[in-house]
Amino acid sequence: MSSLRWLKLNRTGLCYLPEELSALHKLEHLSVSHNNLTTLHGEFSSLPCLRLFINLTDLLYLDLSDNKLESLPPQMRRLVHLQTLLLSNNPLMHAQLRQLPAMTALQTLHLRNTQRTQSNLPTSLDGLTSLADVDLSCNDLSRVPECLYTLSSLRRLNLSTNQISELSLCIDQWTQLETLNLSRNQLTSLPSAICKLTKLKKLYLNSNKLDFDGIPSGIGKLANLEEFMAANNNLELIPESLCRCAKLRKLVLNKNRLVTLPEAVHFLTDVEILDVRENPNLVMPPKPVDRTSEWYNIDFSLQNQLRLAGASPATVAAAAGGSSPKDPMARKMRLRRRKDSAQDDQAKQVLKGMSDVAQEKNKKLEENGDLKYTDLKTRRWDQSLEKPHLNYSEFFTEEVGQLPGVTVWQIENFVPIMVDEAFHGKFYEADCYIVLKTFLDDSGSLNWEIYYWIGQESSLDKKACSAIHAVNLRNFLGAECRSIREEMGDESDEFSQVFDHEISYIEGGTASGFYTVEDIHYVTRLYRVYGKKNIKLEPVPLKAAALDPRFVFLLDHGLEIYIWRGSQATLNGTTKARLFAEKINKNERKGKAEILLLIQTEETPEFWDLLGGQAEEIKANVPDDFKPPRPKLYKVGLGLGYLELPQINYRLSVEHKKRPAADLSPEMRLLQSLLDTKSVYILDCWSDVFIWIGRKSSRLVRAAALKLGQELCSMLHRPKHAMVIRNLEGTECQVFKSKFKNWDDVLKVDYTRNAEAVHQPGGLSGKAEQLMEEWNEDLDGMEGFVLENKKFTRLPEEEFGHFYTQDCYVFLCRYWIPLETEEDEEKKKKKREEGSTEGEEKGEEEEVEEEEKQPEEDFQCVVYFWQGREASNMGWLTFTFSLQKKFENLFPGKLEVVRMTQQQENPKFLSHFKRKFIVHKGKRKARDDNLQPSLYHIRTNGSALCTRCIQINTDSGLLNSEFCFILKVINEGEEPENFFWVGIGAQKPYDGDAEYMNFSRLFRCSNEKGYFAVSEKCSDFCQDDLADDDIYNDLLPTLQSTYAGRPRKLRLVRKGNEPLPFTRCFHAWSVFRKPPA
Predict the structure, then answer these.
(1) Are 111 and 139 contacting, i.e. CB atoms less than 8 angstroms apart?
(2) DSSP letters along 949-1012, please?
(3) Which end of the chain, N or C, is less packed with Cβ atoms under 10 Å?
(4) 30-44, 381-395, 586-600, 896-910: least confident range
(5) What is the mean pLDDT of residues 521-539?
(6) pLDDT of residue 846
(7) What is the radius of gyration, based on Cα positions, of the chain?
(8) Quick one: angle between helices 840-853 and 822-834, nearest 10?
């Protein structure tokens, strides 16, 4: 069986190709049509590279038609000897068919009913020089694919049953075409270039929209035309030149609007079939009568007539020679007159036609008033679709795609970053890119080609983002082209041509946008600390012999930082070394390191183990005149084909563009302003080589700097503990920062602003009343709902304004939106002031008319969701999945949802209750057998809008002479004497003033933004504003000292142990809510 050459497996019910086929190395003909194939690999998908198409390299014929294939394996490009490929009737919608350009011997290609469009066909088929038969019928093509025009050897082309509306003039390149099928399309005319297909034998144009003008008059040049079918069109006549195709055998013109045919149709002697059925108005031309047999070869010349009449021979001879001689000039003038008269007739016809068209347009203009709605060409269905307006300005600038050229983006952290032109054609193996080619087409308008390149080692997020942003770029430009996927090592010729076939790969790539967890490896190093005002660290060998009693040393062991103080070292140096260690712990170790202070002769065994053992004697080993080498700063540059490493002479003040010369000290002139974010620098400190990488620097320069740093470190004779340290802008290590003067990494603080400047005062009483009145004027209706038994029911009117801490409420408010602006009101006022008494009546009539003409006012619906302090979040979930959806269906596009919690209400919401806002404890319909008296506290926080009456614990110690309290007893009418004190329990000492209300302000101290910040809460603060992750400062004593002249006091309050002077600042302080377990 290994020598089998021909195999046919049609209609066998196959679901995949058997693995045994890969052993038929000599197979030439394989047919598996009319089966159930959904894929070509089936159960042997684990085989490397699909051995089937790797081994069957001699295959000449492959029939996969009438199956269920959705894609083709890329290994099919190895079938370089394949001549016939049949793929008809397969759902290959997402298959790009990139394997076709590699099949250079292909002669027959059938893609009938494979969901082909302009976007899933190869852009070029130049290499298929032998392709002669192409079938693309029953697809969704709107025009002839551009790749077909380059097939000069094409003989048979089937484009029937598509959506083609026009043909290009490029069809004259099909010089070998013999059969062209364009039936069942949307053609209205044929280009004149079709007359150049001199070898065309069969032309099928059935079921189109052709009329007499749509067929070129030069169609008679198709001398080899044998079949012409144009049934089911709009033909009134056919060109007379069609009857000059002498070899025409079949002429089908049924189901048209033919009136007559040219008389020359009778001279088509080879016609076998002439079909003109279903043309009701057709009148066949009369057949010419053959009169040659009626004349019997009679000689009508004058000489013969004279001879028959009996004239003498002399007379006959004179008649023969008496004719006037030919006059060539007279003949030319006669022909010229005929030509001029013909041209005059044509000119008259053209002028008459133009005048008729102009008269018709004028007539339509008079009738309709505007002609643009009748004469404009209708838009295609896909152009009429309304596309959503999307904003891509965050990814692409307005200049993108507006000038011819090439633009490249690199995917980094899910976002495309533009690449400099110097790095075009250089791709990192672990990255993905988007390439845009902008060019001018034949009509002079801009056109685009969009590619997205996938690196071999790239991560999943980069692959997905490159494809997504390539489509975003196409939508941003409004381009009709498709985005083409290019894989590393398998780039198409079109993509390679964009970079002039100069594509190079570079190892590496940016980090994935996903979070990755890596184990951090810390290198143990020993530093000698020197300097007085600004300390500096000098690396020394990791040995006990490197210690000197006159200095302080810092031993960095990752999560353990040792500070060793020599017996002769200063206390100032020790303190600054510890501060330096604190910065390392905070910025580099995330606060997880332990800082240990050691004094000479009091070291721990772990310290000596890190240094390789305890020293016998610690003595001075640093020369008295020691000066560290002066750091050298280099800037890494990329020239034309080479690298540049110029040294920056930072002693020159001219290089410090951001600092004046007075700031440059003679000892240390390295400043942070020397470092440019678009560049990469190398700082050579002899014992360390630092590489500083700017965030906006190019990838190629970064890679070159790392290589140069290694070379620079090994080039000179350095200590064994010398290292190359990489620093990224914004995350520099503290040792690198210490090399610079006054490294500025502290946020600027405005010390000119005090607490009074940032104070947020509450609203004044008059202003609050005005706001309350305005907001209630716009309110058209308000309806309340309360959560009962896991569903919302309507709230009774008598309970309006009463809330319970364990319940959830929903209020639907309908607001009118006024249409009249302030400018219109001012104009009306001016007219009233300027108008006279006589014009007042007219003005009133005009106002009435204007009011009648005004459109209806619009409205907006706002849903307020209120949740008590003790209520669970199930109420919000129930509202989201039930009531909110009903409201959205009732008020589409006009609904706004506002979620609130107790004592954190919206001021506009509070205004609708007109200062009658009561909060009870517990649930709305709860039954309590042991009912007790209830105490309510009425309080206003900063503004009259924020007035609430909240139930508090029945404790007389909570009373205050400055506030109003309400005590509710059970048996009304049976109150004993002094029932207030009896009902409240007993009389206790209570506050006699509430002066703290004038000074209490709540400040939040947080570090969530990466730095310490203090922000003030508004005057209407409550207990729930206190978060466990932050620190809050109630500045009553601090601010009170400013007014009363008393000394400031600062008190620490821990959660759960709050004293009364602290809790009284909050309205209705209670126990903190515990989250559900």
Answers:
(1) yes
(2) EEEE-S-GGG-BTTSEEEEE-SSTT---TTHHHHHHSS----BS--GGGGT--EEEEE-TTSS-
(3) C
(4) 381-395
(5) 87
(6) 53
(7) 47
(8) 160
The answer to whether residue 771 sits within a structural domain is no
Q: Are residues 466 and 549 in the same domain?
A: no
Q: Which residues span the domain enclosing 638?
A: 632-650+671-733
Alpha-carbon 716 to chain mean position = 50
Burial 844-869 (b: 16+ CB within 10 A, else e): eeeeeeeeeeeeeeeebbbbbbbbbb
* Domain boundary residue, one of 733, 752, 777: 733
Residues 1018 and 1048 in one domain: yes
Domain CATH for 561: 3.40.20.10
Q: Are residues 550 and 643 in the same domain?
A: no
Residues 481, 416 within the same domain: yes
Which amino acid belongs to residue 942?
A: G
Q: Is residue 55 situated within a structural domain?
A: no
Q: How many residues does the chain have?
A: 1077
Q: Region 550-566: what's the mean pLDDT?
A: 93
Residues 471, 477: Cα–Cα separation, whole Å = 10
Question: 404-414 burial, b if ≥16 CB within 10 A, otherwise e?
Answer: eeebbbbbbee
Let me know whether 466 and 539 are in one domain: no
- Position 415 in a domain: yes
Same domain, yes or no, for 535 and 482?
Answer: no
Q: Is the pLDDT of residue 935 over 50?
A: yes
3-state SS, residue 265: helix
Q: What is the mean pLDDT of residues 251-276?
A: 90
Cα distances from 337 to residues 13, 373, 891, in angstroms, run 79, 46, 82
Q: Which of 477, 506, 535 is the last residue of a domain?
A: 506
What is the rounded average pLDDT of the residues 775-791? 89
The two tokens of residue 274 are: 């002439």
Per the domain annotation, does 457 fall within a domain? yes
Token pair belonging to 843: 């003005």
Contact predicate 94/62, CB 8 Å: no
Residue 208 near residue 185 (C-beta atoms within 8 A): yes
45 pLDDT higher than 50: no
- Count: domains in the chain: 4
* CA separation for the pair 456, 433 (Å, rounded): 12
- 695 Cβ contact partners less than 8 Å away, ≥ 6 residues apart: 677, 728, 729, 730
Does residue 532 sit in the same domain as residue 486? Answer: no
Helix (H) or strand (E) holding 813: strand 808-817
Per-residue pLDDT, 47: 41
E strands, 113-267, are: 133-135, 156-158, 179-181, 202-204, 227-229, 250-252
pLDDT in tens, 831-856: 555 554 444 444 545 554 554 445 55
- 399 band by pLDDT with thresholds 50, 70 and 90: confident
Mean per-residue pLDDT for 266-278? 89
- Kindly state the average pLDDT of the residues 921-929: 74
Query: What pLDDT shows up at residue 666?
Result: 41
Q: Closest Cα partner for 472 from 530, 414, 527?
A: 414
pLDDT over 70, % of the chain: 78
| pLDDT tens digits, one per residue of 936-946 | 999 888 788 88
C-alpha triplet 316, 318, 320: angle, nearest 5°? 70
- Edge-first strand listing for the sheet containing 779-788: 791-794, 779-788, 808-817, 858-867, 895-901
Share of the chain above pLDDT 90, in %: 28
pLDDT for residue 287: 79
Strands 632-638 and 643-644: antiparallel
Max CA distance (Å), the chain: 175
- Tell me, what amino acid is at 708? L
Instruction: Give residue 461's Cα distance to chain centre.
Output: 14
442 & 475 share domain:
yes
Residue 497 φ then ψ, to 5°: -70, -25
- 40-44, 157-161, 369-373: segment of lowest average pLDDT: 369-373
